[in-house]
Amino acid sequence: MGSAINTVDSPSSSSVSGILLAREMADQERNFRSQYYDKVGFRSVEEKRSIENLLKEQPMKHEKLAQFCIRFGLPAMYRLYVWKILLGILPANQTCQDFVWFHRQEQVRELERATILLCPDSIDGSQEYKVLIMKLVEEGKLPLRKKNLTSELSNQHFMAIVRTVSSLVTSEADLFWISTRFFCHVFNVLGSFSQFPEYTMQCLMKEDKSQKLYQHLCHHQVVSALPLHVWFHQCFASVLPEASVERIWDRVIGGSSHILVFVAVAIFLVLRRPLLAMQSSQDIVNYLKEIPEDCGDRIVNEALNLFQEYGLTWPMKEDSPVTCTGDSGRSSAKALTESGRHSRHSSGASCREKAKGDSGQVTIVVGGPLPLSVARRSPSTAGKGS
Fold this sequence. Notes:
Layout: H1 2-9, H2 13-39, H3 44-56, H4 62-72, H5 76-86, H6 97-118, H7 127-139, H8 153-166, H9 172-187, H10 190-193, H11 196-207, H12 212-219, H13 222-225, H14 228-233, H15 242-254, H16 259-270, H17 272-277, H18 281-289, H19 296-310, E1 321-323, H20 330-343, E2 363-365, H21 379-382
Antiparallel strand pairs: 1-2
Helix pairs in contact: 3-4, 4-15, 6-7, 6-9, 7-8, 8-9, 11-16, 15-19, 16-19
InterPro entries: Rab-GAP-TBC_dom, Rab-GAP_TBC_sf, TBC1D7, TBC1D7_dom2
Subcellular location: Cytoplasm, Cytosol; Cytoplasmic vesicle; Lysosome membrane
Pfam family, one: RabGap-TBC_2
């Protein structure tokens, strides 16, 4: 009788193999489904589950959310919420988010009242001008003479960001806090933007196989006339459609500002044909100042492909080096840190290209510029995650 009980309780080898086979088939079906969704353009099916799992953690992990933003971008329904967490508008602990947000809204209402008292002309001004005054009041930097406020370059960049954010949000509190915190986030990495135009042309030279477009732009001296610095400082606000820009901002908020270089390169590649047809620098500059709206998604998709192809940066501590290869990156990051100490007194370059044989590894400083020699990841390492 005991043997009979043992027979019932202990699964036979055939039943175990059947269970394992069923699990393997389920995994294959799930992988096939994921690949099918990816192929037809519905990658968000699996990504939505992943971000929901991250948001269930208490408290939520900033590093994990930032990594998700860099790798996949955010689903539309969670975008503003995750932005507010990563920008420090809301705390990572859900239990006190309502309390914090209530006081954030109260602060915005107080700033609106103060703005009306200190700057009555803001009532009839544009929405972005009003938010600018509120920002200056909150920072204690509102000047007595306000005539030249909108002519200052940094204020123009901020107002462009406000215009883009206003199309993404529905409340005054969201508009103020996301605009101001995102502008501060961009301001913290302004030092790396000075070399972005140079890296843009270097990357374009590598992508333009025939060198036709690259030589055409150099021949007409377009680079010096283009508003590349404006593009980078505004993170392409008022340059690309809002629905396209938000996918770029996911990566910027996640900590990879060098995505902006690939967006600039993608603009040239997508608009290659009309640019080659123009025979004056002024015509090219005027055309690029008003990029067709129907090209927005194509440009962003091309930029994200370049971003994936050249490697991702992972959000770590500020100015910390990260290796964009298939391994964990710890040894390379440590080696780069040691080399960075010596390089400060030599060339001063914050990014170095590091090659092992033909692997084509690229090392990039988070929040900093791209390496002077932008190298593609080889097929042997391109498919590996970090």
